[in-house]
Amino acid sequence: MDKYQQTLKNIDKFNRDRHWKNLSLEDLAKSICIESAELLEHFQWSSSRKKIRDTEKISLEVADIFWYLATFCHEAKIDLLIAMAKKIKILETKYPKEVFAEKAVSEEIYLKYKQEYRNKFGR
User: Fold this and answer.
1) Residue range 66-84: average pLDDT?
2) Helix or strand or coil: residue 45?
3) What's the CATH number where 19 sits?
4) Other C-beta atoms within 10 Å of 61: how many?
5) 93-113: b or e for each residue (b if 16 or more CB lie within 10 Å)?
6) Whole-model pTM?
7) What is the DSSP secondary structure assignment for residue 52, as one 8-state letter?
8) Burial of 87 (0-12, 13-18, 19+ CB in 10 A)
């Protein structure tokens, strides 16, 4: 078993040991957003180019987000790795490497490809 699968098992066991099961997907989705906002709070009022100040606190916020996301996926019967593989395929079509491999793609080009993709695939 790889580290990812073991981590998912550990989260599930922790939740089950505390009878935190059959949680509402709505509540879990809210929790993902709340924890994401707590991560963002570390960067509030700072330049985006500043070095991360407190990596320990930030890493714990990231862990909170992962925890809720893993729990959400478990409750919703979503395999995150399969979902990610599908999303990568979609993004490869939406943002072709031949165009987006350039160091600085203009916002105009980005929006053009995004709109063309939506017109073609409806997403």
Assistant:
1) 97
2) coil
3) 1.10.287.1080
4) 18
5) ebeeeeeeeeeeeeeeeeeeb
6) 0.81
7) P
8) exposed
Residues 50 and 95 in one domain: no
Rounded to 5 degrees, what are φ and ψ at 47?
-70, 145
Domain count within the chain: 2
Residues 98 and 38 in one domain: no
Claim to verify: residue 73 and residue 111 sit in the same structural domain: no
Burial 27-56, CB ≥16 within 10 A → b, else e: ebeebbeebbeebeeeeeeeeeeeeeeeee
Nearest to 61 by CA among 30, 40, 91: 40
Q: In this structure, are 56 and 113 located in the same domain? A: no
Domain region containing 96: 81-123
36: tokens are: 């994401």
Question: 1-50 pLDDT, tens per residue?
Answer: 899 999 999 999 999 999 998 899 999 999 999 999 999 998 887 776 66
> Are 72 and 23 members of one domain?
yes
